[in-house]
Amino acid sequence: MSTSQLTEQAAGAGASSSPSRPAGPARRPASLRARRARAFYVFTVPWVLGFLALTAFPLGYALWLSFTNADGLSQNSRFVGLDNYREVFSDPETMSSLWRTGVFTAVTVPLTIVAGLLLAVLVNQPIRARGLFRTLLYLPAVVPPVGAALTFKLIFDRDSGAANGALDLAGINGVTWLVDPYARWVLIVLTLWGVGNGMIISLAGLQDIPKELNEAARVDGASPWQSFSRITLPLLSPVIFFQVVTGIIGSLQTFMPLLIALDPTPKGVSSVPESNYFYMINVFAQYFANGRYGYASALLWVLFAIICVVTFLIFKLSKGAVFYSVEPEQAKPKARTIGGSR
Amino acid sequence: MSVSTTGSFDRRRFLTVSAGAAFAATALPGCAASVDDGSSDGDTKAGSKTLTVMSSEDEKKELQTVGKALGIKINFVARDETKLNAMLAAKNPPDVVRGLGAVETPYFAARGLMTDLDPYFAKSSVLKPSDIDPVNDVWRYDGKKQGAGPRYGLAKDYSQDQMLWYRTDLFEAAKLDLLSETEPLSYDELLELGKKLTKRRLGKVKVYGLSASGLGTFSQLMGMTASTGGSVFAEDLASVDFSSPEALKALEWYLEYARADIGPNVANPNPDGWDWPTYQAGRMAIASDGYWFGGAIGGDPKVAEVSRFAPAPQLGSNRISPCFGATGYWIPKDAKNKDAAWKFFEYFFGGKAAEERAAGGWGIPSLKSLRSKMPQAQPYQKQAFKVQEQELEHFSVLTFTPYAQLAALDGVISKVLPKAIKGKASAGKAADELNKLMNEQIAKGKELVG
């Protein structure tokens, strides 16, 4: 018997048990649906309050600021209309920081997903000490970003770092890793350092794939690669899709260069090399070093819009490439399919 | 089947109520802040006054001690420019804020965010204007220039930040004469010394000959330009000019220093963020850091034995020795506990705390009467005291612009100079680029300050 049938029965029973009671909505006991709705709202109130106070209100406030020349401190700020938004698209520094961020995203998101997937496939094999390998590979992802950045800064220091120490042993000249043009590569390696997160997500996805499918494919003569590419990857596509979406959003907002500078202050912005001067570093600098709250707020709103558009496009483009074993909208079980066709 | 909604929330009402509650939660602290007229003498929770002090972690213990001595509970807030800006913008600032008087006073004073302390000084029996060291003029601003007008803060101690500390062991190893205690080096001589003291191996610097900008590149260029009789800032402080012969000379020297790769610079920043760890490890021969660096030296007897102090080098004939920091405290205009903050000032700057600080060697005390407390027990301290005493007569206040923060101007430098250091742009072109970008920043600030 379905829940709706139970609800209807309960409502009907309630109505028939007190026929002499005057019909009035105030006295009628709340239906199951109403009680459930109330419970839903009660449980979601903390989140909704948090969302309104910590997301909606700041977003609205930032939107208002973005139409002013406020510096956060002076009383003389005024309405400047769309000037800040015009400047966003005409400021070469902003445009180049956006371009750099895009390139970084285009490089690191596929890299981290592929690396995480490869590691997940490896530690999903029936090998000895599998748990130990999983733990070791995941550990770097547990290290706080500031700790990882500090470690990398020490390793790649030109004069006393281990990287140049190794080159020294081989009689090779030291490299100034932490400044241009090498700084971007150090940052990419640092980003890959946290690949354990992706590994865990992909591993969970791999373990959700029924073994029978791969076994059946092998019986039918499929090679390991065919089995991986035709069965595992399609069934893993929702998990990969999740990583693509969250990875892109995270990369567009990355703040890592400031952490590697180990001085997340307005002063620290000046030690971020040009190749790592990403969009969010520019936002931070405009807010707190340059005191341009209005312009920085416009930058944030533009980024917000970019993220919304990019996410929308990814969802549109993913149709036909992501295969759900359960329809996400209806949550009704559906027969497992290979390649998305019944 | 229709469902009764009476007695339960509908979505619209739910969202309306939530929005109201969220707005109230956000707005109420602001209302609470605006109720206090600033005249009260501290928070009397649990019968004791509470003073919110924003300072650096290394001063936390000292502040707690001061609080105990005064019977005031110190609510410590770690120094964070972003947090300070947010607190000032919300009109809910700390009662006392640590800051760099030399470069922050015009910025905050011009925006009306600092309390004029003259009435407090006039009444004080502890902090008398006649006893206040001239360095505290950097905490004054009259709306047009530093060094005049109301006092907005007080330095806890200070240094003349272009003076030099050097390691005699590295000088002796390079068979070089020790530096004069009275006659300043020229910057060209300093550069040559730095080159001779630098040791390399396979493209790596094993020992830096010279660190030329301990407190930031903009300040360094400002001081160098002043020693040639010029000024980076225009008279109205509304623009910079690095193309003037004096500023260009300073810029060219800096580019040569950075290209020589004999010390940390904007193209190769010090990974430690300051000179001490490198200097302590014997990997830096000369550090341009001022008297305060002696406090760190005092913590390592081996380093103290081989450290000596020398006058600030000069780029031109106008001998000056400026202070770029004058780190101290100020009271925000919207602070709630101003009287308690002033009590804190009197004890911290003129009481036992000040005496102990003066003896620590981390800077020249802010009160002239405390100078005799400066450490002179060890040979390096005695030598440093003597050199410092002579240097004081060359102290001068360099006015900073009220229209931009130092971090913004240093940010421009770190964008423009690396290209010039790598030879991709000449000093003249770099100067033009610096002028353009910095003046844009300053113009935007001027529009707001008026």
TrEMBL record, chain A:
Residues 1-28 are annotated as: Disordered. Belongs to the binding-protein-dependent transport system permease family. The chain crosses the membrane at residues 40-64, 102-123, 135-156, 185-206, 293-315. Residues 10-28 have a biased composition (Low complexity). InterPro entries: ABC_transporter_permease, MetI-like, MetI-like_sf. PANTHER family: ABC TRANSPORTER PERMEASE PROTEIN, DIACETYLCHITOBIOSE UPTAKE SYSTEM PERMEASE PROTEIN NGCF. It is a multi-pass membrane protein. This is Sugar ABC transporter permease. The lineage of its organism: Bacteria, Bacillati, Actinomycetota, Actinomycetes, Kitasatosporales. It holds the Pfam family BPD_transp_1. Residues 98-314 form the ABC transmembrane type-1 domain. Keywords: Cell membrane, Membrane, Transmembrane, Transmembrane helix, Transport. Its main location: membrane. It is found in: Cell membrane.
TrEMBL record, chain B:
It comes from the Bacteria. SUPFAM superfamilies: Periplasmic binding protein-like II (SSF53850). The keyword NADP does not apply. Residues 34-58 are annotated as: Disordered. Gene3D superfamilies: Periplasmic binding protein-like II. Pfam families: SBP_bac_1. Keywords: Signal. This is Extracellular solute-binding protein. It comes from Streptomyces vastus.
